[in-house]
Amino acid sequence: MASPIPGAERAIRQIAQPTKDAVRAVVRGVRAARHRDVRLADDRARTELLLGELGDWTPRVVAAYASAGDEPGTAELLDALVARGATVLLPVLSATAAGPRGVGEWAVYDGREGLRSGLWGIPEPASEPLGPAAIEEAELVIMPGIAGTPAGDRLGTGGGWYDRSLVGTSSPRWMLLNDDELYESVPPDPWDLPVSVIVTPVRVVRCR
After folding, report:
1. What is the distance between the alpha carbons of residues 20 and 155, in angstroms, rounded to a whole number?
2. Which domain holds residue 118?
3. CB 165 within 8 A of CB 132
């Protein structure tokens, strides 16, 4: 059930003019059209593949994100990482009493019940933020994205908040996608950082 049409998602996609807006429009349209049961099955499949790729290695600290809407889901993955003994950090972007944050901060994920709706509806921990520098402790970063390539190019959602928070870090960056979100090429924004691994519901792509 990870793919609605067996084999259909294995081909690398192309569009006539791969502008950022065109790719984002295609991907968001397909994501919105996916049946909920298919999305949940894909989420489980991605989680199993990612944990299998980790093997016996459990990163001490993982920086990740809490998924929203119809993007590749992370709920089961976050819980699985915590169950394996990892400390999971999630971004905190909502404004403080003094106004908007100048830069995203990080807080420890302590279960789904400890999440609140933050900026742009992105779930974030309600616990006390640890500050922007907490990302430096992460041994693995799991990033959101819209599309990617086998070479590791990544097209983000457009805000750039996650990428900017990672500037200066050297931890491996992995991205979660649906298999039909792999393209021959994508036009990344200037701040879109490349990734070393892409995990889809049907395969793990070790980027060139």
Report:
1. 8
2. 20-206
3. yes
Share above pLDDT 70 across residues of the chain, in percent, rounded to a whole number: 86
Which residue pairs, CB below 8 angstroms and at least 24 apart, start in 163-168? Answer: 163/191, 163/192, 163/193, 164/103, 164/104, 164/191, 165/91, 165/103, 165/104, 165/106, 165/132, 165/135, 166/135, 166/141, 166/193
Q: Which residues of 53-66 are buried (b: 16+ CB within 10 A; e: fewer)?
A: ebeeeebebbbbbb
Contact 161, 184 (CB under 8 A): no
What are the backbone angles phi and psi of residue 154, rounded to the nearest 5°? -130, 135
Q: Per the domain annotation, does 11 fall within a domain?
A: no
Whether 56 is covered by a domain: the verdict is yes
Domain count within the chain: 1
CATH code, domain carrying 105 = 3.40.50.10420
161 DSSP 8-state letter: H
Give the single-character DSSP code of 99: B
Q: Is the pLDDT of residue 38 over 80?
A: yes
Nearest to 92 by CA among 62, 54, 134: 134
Note whether residue 6 is domain-resident.
Answer: no
- 10 in any annotated domain: no
CA 120 to chain CA centroid, Å, is 16
The 10s digit of each residue's pLDDT in 63-115 is 999 999 999 999 999 999 999 999 999 988 876 656 556 567 899 999 999 99
- C-alpha distances in Å from residue 3, one per residue of 41, 86, 147, 179: 9, 30, 17, 8
